[in-house]
Specification:
There is one protein chain. The chain contains eight helices and four strands. The protein is mainly alpha-helical. It has one domain. The strands form two sheets. It has a two-stranded antiparallel ribbon. The chain is globular.
Length: 160
């Protein structure tokens, strides 16, 4: 599994605290917050804010989530199976090694939360299920309802 896939999986697990997709994004970034160790909320903004306006629109958020979904879908079948989630969790646990401890427990909890996005109970997350969870998550993160996630809203999510 590539380092990028592991980083991506790390991100997809921590934003689950805010929602199943957000937890996964955190986990995919190595547990370093939205920024994956690259500046927390500001790192998240730098990755998702493709037009450089200092905030993340729903379209930018969805583009980032689409890319993450594709990285997680190891076999390219258009769904992220529970087996793929478990394999990525295991890879992250191995990568964390001795640093696992509580972080490893949190990783497992976040992966379990990601599995909760499986609305039809087929043991996989379809692109539609992933998008529905991602869209709901965006609304939850956009606390002022202006259609964007700004640095303040990203920082508030990190505190939760």
């Amino acid at each position: 599994m590539s380092r990028m896939t592991m980083i991506s999986m790390a991100a997809l697990a921590a934003l689950v605290a805010a929602g199943p997709i957000a937890g996964a994004a955190y986990a995919q970034n190595g547990g370093g917050g939205w920024g994956g160790g690259r500046g927390g909320p500001l790192g998240m903004l730098s990755r998702y804010d493709t037009n450089g306006d200092g905030k993340i629109s729903l379209a930018e958020y969805e583009a980032g989530r689409d890319a993450m979904f594709k990285r997680m879908d190891a076999n390219g079948d258009g769904a992220v199976s529970f087996a793929e989630i478990d394999a990525q969790e295991q890879a992250m646990q191995q990568r964390m090694g001795d640093r696992g401890g509580r972080g490893g427990d949190r990783m497992k909890a976040r992966m379990d939360q990601l599995k909760a996005a499986d609305a039809n109970g087929d043991q996989s997350i379809s692109a539609d299920e992933f998008k529905a969870a991602s869209d709901a998550e965006f609304k939850a993160l956009d606390t002022n309802g202006d259609g964007f996630i700004d640095a303040g809203e990203a920082a508030a999510m990190m505190k939760r």
